[in-house]
Amino acid sequence: MSVLVLVLAVSAACCLGFGFVFQQAAAAHAPKRDYLTFRLLLDLMKVRSWLAGIALMVCGMVLGALALGKGEVSLVEPLLATNLLFAMALSRHRTGQRLGRQGWAGLWLLAGGVAAFLVAGEPQGGRAVAAPLRHWLVVGVVAGLALLLTAIAKRRRSTASPALLAVAAGLLYGLQDALTRVSGQRFSESGLAGLLTSWQPYAVVVLGVTGLLLVQSAFETGPLRMSLPALTAAQPLAGIACGIGFMGDQVRTDAGALAWQAAGLAAIVAGIVLLGLHPAMPAGPVRRGTHSLQRR
């Protein structure tokens, strides 16, 4: 694994984690009538703390795109999942809550799961799958599942809605990461003209905006602990599926390696859940004047 890819991916995770905390603190005060509408984004654009969170997220996405340009999706996505550690660190600073056994257990499960998956799987780049049917099948399944979860969350608003929307956004972000890598390859092979005449970069923009709306709606309707763990768990799984499904990424497939990879992914999900339920993750909006929509 390249040290540069490691540094880029972890730096991206840091920016993403910090950005999510600022975004949720602002979105929690947004009018409920803005739920799943673009008015939500227009209202949040007037809040300085939210704009700071978006700036951090954009920085993280740029660093993540650079990491994806130099490494495989199946390698970068698990590293990006560590954004929850940075989000928890900032939340811990804001709440003054100690890690305790639960926090340390979640931290080691997440870090150990990432390490186990990378060491056992040894992700390597391969030849992108040329078959259009397989390509569109993977894209359709991921996007279709995200659409289904969004429809359920919109029709049956409940305590599960933030998690459903976060999973949907994570699926779209994972797909976006894979298409970002495809766009980078097209730019390298055909230059700017080849990139602009392909559909992938435009899909990246659409997925990014749609995912942003879903995330902010999830942040608006529930505490960070109900949405960020689900988002953090769904994105790498979708990215890995896309990387192997149509990007040609390869992982070891012998019985022992598959067992360790499955254990690693299970540990990642378990660690994310434990960290998300930790008291250091805000159970509700932090009542500070700097995060109120009344502050322009």
Series of secondary-structure elements, N-terminal to C-terminal: HHHHHHHHHHH
Q: How many E strands?
A: 0
- Low-pLDDT ranges: 285-296
What is the radius of gyration? Answer: 18 Å
Question: What's a quick, concise take on this entry?
Answer:
This protein has helices spanning 3-27, 39-44, 48-70, 73-80, 83-95, 100-121, 132-155, 161-196, 200-221, 224-245, 255-276. The chain is mostly helical and 296 residues long. Helix 1 (3-27) crosses helix 4, helix 1 (3-27) packs across helix 5 and helix 10 packs antiparallel against helix 11 (255-276).
Structural overview:
By secondary structure, the chain is an all-alpha fold. Helix content is 75%, strand content 0%. The longest helix has 36 residues, at 161-196.
Please render the helix and strand layout as text.
Layout: H1 3-27, H2 39-44, H3 48-70, H4 73-80, H5 83-95, H6 100-121, H7 132-155, H8 161-196, H9 200-221, H10 224-245, H11 255-276
Helix pairs in contact: 1-3, 1-4, 1-5, 1-9, 3-8, 4-10, 6-11, 7-8, 7-10, 8-9, 8-10, 10-11
Q: What descriptors fit this protein?
A:
disordered C terminus, 11 helices, mainly alpha, 296 residues
